[in-house]
């Protein structure tokens, strides 16, 4: 059974390496609804993977694998580009959608070039920074607090909203989180 499990992991890993080139990833947009008004106030871009051989694969399986094998940077960049392109299409169609929220992996946020990459993607796609929200997890903010805090502040200064995703599911320090430049 261990051999079969190892073979399955290798197949999955190999397929993940090819997924971007094969255009096997796609986004779905989950609406964010205001409990007060009942209206849509934004959307969250959710990554999905439909492999031509393996079928639909859960993000709970492929995201940790992508982080482990070093593909999360490329995949995260692809998600951000596609979400921004969709936001621009909605704007051009006259659809008011608030902000598109995109999850950011800890490895992305901890790169010194991350803010520059976001700036470049916004410029290249034409989406206004005020139409973007980046969701980060508590745990990724704890690993290099100074670098992360500086990056989050720069993103906030650009007009991007920053929110904490999955709050309370990891080690939580509310007093520390209150010092970070996050919006929600």
Structural class: alpha/beta
Order of helices and strands: HEEEHHEHHEHHEH
According to DSSP, the number of beta strands is 6
Total of helices:
8
Percentage of residues in helical conformation = 40-55%
Whole-angstrom Rg? 17 Å
Strand content: 15-25%
Mean pLDDT: 87
Distance between the termini: 45 Å
Stretches with pLDDT under 50, minimum 5 residues: none
Q: Biggest β-sheet: count, sense, barrel? A: 6 strands, mixed
Shape descriptor: globular
Q: How would you describe what is shown here?
A:
By secondary structure, the protein is an alpha/beta fold. The protein contains 8 helices and 6 strands. It has helices at 2-19, 59-69, 72-92, 106-109, 114-125, 138-143, 145-158, 174-177, and strands at 25-33, 40-51, 55-57, 99-103, 132-137, 161-165. Strand 1 (25-33) and strand 2 (40-51) form a beta hairpin. It starts with a helix and ends in a 7-residue tail after the last helix. 23% of the residues are buried. The mean pLDDT is 87.
């Amino acid at each position: 059974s261990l051999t079969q499990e190892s073979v399955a992991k290798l197949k999955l890993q190999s397929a993940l390496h090819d997924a971007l080139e094969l255009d096997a990833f796609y986004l779905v947009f989950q609406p964010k609804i205001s409990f007060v008004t009942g209206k849509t106030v934004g959307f969250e871009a959710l990554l999905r993977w439909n492999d031509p051989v393996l079928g639909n694969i859960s993000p709970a399986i492929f995201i940790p694998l992508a982080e482990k094998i070093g593909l999360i940077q490329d995949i995260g960049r692809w998600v951000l580009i596609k979400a921004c392109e969709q936001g621009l299409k909605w704007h051009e169609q006259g659809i008011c959608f608030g902000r598109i929220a995109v999850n950011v992996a800890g490895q992305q946020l901890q790169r010194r070039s991350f803010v520059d990459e976001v700036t470049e993607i916004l410029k290249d796609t034409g989406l206004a920074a005020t139409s973007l929200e980046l969701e980060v997890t508590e745990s990724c903010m704890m690993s290099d607090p100074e670098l992360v805090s500086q990056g989050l502040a720069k993103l906030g200064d650009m007009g991007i909203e920053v929110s904490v995703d999955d709050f309370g599911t990891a080690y939580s320090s509310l007093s520390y989180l209150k010092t970070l430049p996050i919006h929600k």
